[in-house]
Structures are given as C-alpha cells and as structure tokens.
Design brief:
This protein is of the alpha/beta class. It folds into 3 domains: 143 residues, no CATH class; 42 residues, no CATH class; 171 residues, 3-Layer(aba) Sandwich (Rossmann fold), CATH 3.40.50.410. Helices cover 50% and strands 12% of the residues. The chain contains 14 helices and 9 strands. A 6-stranded mixed β-sheet has the order 6-5-4-7-8-9, with helices on both faces. Helix 2 packs antiparallel against helix 3, helix 4 runs antiparallel to helix 5 and helix 11 runs parallel beside helix 12. The termini are far apart. About 9% of the residues have low confidence.
Length: 392
C-alpha cells in the first residue's frame, strides 16, 4: 500500500513544478508581445486549482479564459501555447470530440482553427463583444477593491505584486502656495523691471521686449518617522513601501526609521526598484524588529537632524503604534517641540483599526495632545485617507 503522506508530498512537488512552468509560460508570452496582466496571472493560478490538470483540454481552456482578454488575441495565444507546451501542430480538444490525435493532424489545422475562431467571434453581436472586453477590467476592479480594504496583516505573498501596483497608483500632490520670492516667467503678471533694463542695455538702450516674473511656489514637504520595532514588524514593511512611493511623487520628502535609535533612509528609498530599496533597508537597519525608545529617538532626531529638517514649512508624519519603553517625560517634551516647530503633526497608528481602541499606553497617551491628526494605517484605503488629509 502506498503511503498517503508521501503521496501528498509528491502531489505538492508536482504542483509547485507546474506553477513554475506556468510562470515561465507567462514570461514567454510577454517576450512575444502578448498582453499579460498581473490580474490574469493570479486568475490563472486560481483556475488551475479548480480543474484536473492532467486533462490537456481543461488545462488549455483554464489558461485561455484567464489570459485572452480580447478575441483578436486568440490566434497569437494558440500559436504561442503550442510552441511552448509542445502540443504538436494543434491545440488540445475535448477527449470526446472524435477527431484524430495531435500527432496525426496536419499543420494547416492550427491555422484553420484560428480562422474559425476569428470568424465565430466576428459573428457575435456587439453587446456580447462588449461584455468580453469589459469582463477583465470589472474582475480586476473587484480584486483591487477587496485588496484596498484588506488588512496588511492578512496580505498573502501571492498578493504582493497587486499591492505594489495599488501603491503605485497613489499620487500625492500638495497644494502649491505662492512664496515671497519671484522667478522669471513668460506668463507672469508682474513686470520684471531689472531684467528688462539689463536686456535693453545689451541692445543699445532700446527696450525691445518687456520681461515678466511671478512668485515662486512654496511647497509643503514631509518628514516621516517610521517605527520599525518588534511591535510594528507586521506593518513596517508595507508602510516603508508606501513611503517609497511618496518620495517618488513628493519632492523633498525625508524618511527616518527608529526603534532604539534613529537612522535616515531617504537615499536608500531613492533606488530605482522598490524591491532593491527594501533589500538595502533590511541590510542597513540593524535595529529592525528590536525594542522601542520613542522619546529617546525623537530627542536624537532633534539633536542630529533638527537644524536641517525641523521647519515650519514641513509636516511631520509619525508611523507608530505608540508602545514605548523609554522615558515618558522625554517623549512629551519632544512632542511639544515638534508641535511648535512643524507646520502639522500627523500620527498614523495601525491599532486604530479596532473600534474599541483607546490610547491608554503611556507613550501614546503622552504624545496625543500634541498631534493634529490621529489616523489609522492598517490597509491601502486608510493610507489613501492620509493622502487626502495631506492634500487638504
């Protein structure tokens, strides 16, 4: 008799090998300019768990339904499928269709199947084609919508590419305020008399053109202090990825991480790839998932970086659950300093996802009176609310 445990292990290893080959097939489609979306990959992986993978026709149809969004792509998909999976000169058909085996078919059969499928698709009504075109976007929208409200604590490894795509879609642009200084402008409403006179002296004293100027925009900048201690371990990775996107779209953003001490990681998050940036952060930040001394870290930040970054045109954003093992009085005095020196103080706390949450821990209770906005940060939807708050 066969061992059931060993049989399950064999089935698991075969499934993993098959999924790796499916991933290679999708990369093969991309290299041959076949449109493949991340949502299609996830749908294909789920579909293969619902069929008999040893049935060639079911396997082909599962991939086809998930990958072919528009009927015009069907011919190219069939050709690439046959080339990659080695199914001979034709695509798999139902086992009871009464046709010849794959090896006995002529090469013209594949072309004829492509033509027949194209003709059949062209005969469909306009409403039916429209439904086909809209099916994938609607499915993608529903997946994205459910992921927006999903707690970071429950995000699966397979959902990480979708989450990265959601974070990329977030755009942060603060309202530009006009400062006191001027800059040259062709459409400015103020005459730049000095530049106009200087330009006229180069032309023999004649004023050929009137040059204009306008006030320079005065942008609001962010300073982010992200808690990477053990109590924030589940959320820190996702929040740092969010901060990575902020730095891309909001100039002048400065990012620091803290636990038992403070470290500036702005330069690391300027790397081209978010995965590379996260890898470098994990290697450089040696106190990740350690203890917490919020007051001491804030004091170190003010002493080492305060002269450069604590200014009235900056918004301080603190990402922490407020659990602190340090001196509460030090934290209170530093928060008082931040309240006076920064334009606004925003505290993002993942524990606000609980309806009955109250800031009873000493660190959070000491800091809360000096916070302008106390917001949650446990999923993408709450981060979008934070973005809207900064815009306002």
């Amino acid at each position: 008799m066969s061992d059931p445990a060993r049989s399950r292990e064999d089935n698991g290893s075969r499934s993993m090998a098959l999924m790796e080959r499916v991933v290679r097939f999708m990369n093969f489609l991309r290299r041959n300019r076949f449109p493949v979306h991340t949502v299609s990959e996830i749908n294909a992986a789920r579909a293969l768990t619902l069929i008999d993978i040893e049935d060639q026709f079911q396997f082909y149809m599962a991939l086809r339904v998930c990958m072919v969004i528009h009927h015009t792509h069907l011919g190219l998909f069939n050709r690439l499928y046959m080339k990659f999976w080695g199914t001979g000169p034709r695509i798999p058909m139902p086992p009871d269709d009464g046709e010849e085996d794959a090896e006995e078919q002529s090469p013209s059969v594949a072309k004829r199947l492509d033509m027949e499928s194209a003709v059949e698709s062209s005969r469909k009504s306009g409403k039916k084609r429209l439904a086909q075109d809209e099916e994938a976007p609607v499915l993608a929208h529903s997946i994205y919508e459910s992921l927006r409200e999903k707690d970071f604590e429950r995000i699966l490894e397979s959902e990480m590419p979708l989450l990265e795509e959601l974070l990329k879609r977030m755009r942060l642009r603060t309202r530009e305020r006009k400062g006191r200084r001027f800059k040259p402008s062709k459409r400015g409403s103020v005459v730049d008399l000095r530049r106009s006179m200087r330009d006229s002296t180069q032309r023999g004293g004649e004023i050929v053109s009137i040059l204009r100027k306008e006030k320079k925009p005065k942008e609001t900048k962010l300073v982010l202090l992200a808690d990477v201690s053990g109590s924030m371990d589940v959320y820190s990775t996702f929040l740092i990825q969010f901060v990575y996107q902020l730095q891309r779209y909001l100039r002048g953003t400065e990012t620091f991480v803290f636990g038992t001490r403070v470290m500036r990681i702005t330069d690391l998050l300027h790397l081209r790839s978010v995965r590379t940036a996260m890898s470098m952060v994990s290697k450089r930040v040696l106190f990740w998932s350690g203890g917490t001394d919020i007051g001491g870290c804030f004091q170190q930040f003010a002493g080492s970086f305060g002269a450069k970054y604590i200014k009235r045109n900056r918004i301080l954003v603190i990402l922490s659950d407020g659990w602190d093992k340090g001196d509460v009085e030090v934290l209170r005095s530093q928060m008082n300093l931040f309240k006076r020196k920064f334009k606004k103080v925003i505290w993002l706390n993942p524990n606000l996802k609980y309806e009955r949450y109250q800031p009873l821990c000493m660190g959070m209770a000491a800091a809360l009176p000096y916070v302008d906005h106390f917001l949650p940060c446990h999923n993408v939807k709450t981060l979008e609310q934070f973005v809207e708050t900064v815009k306002r």
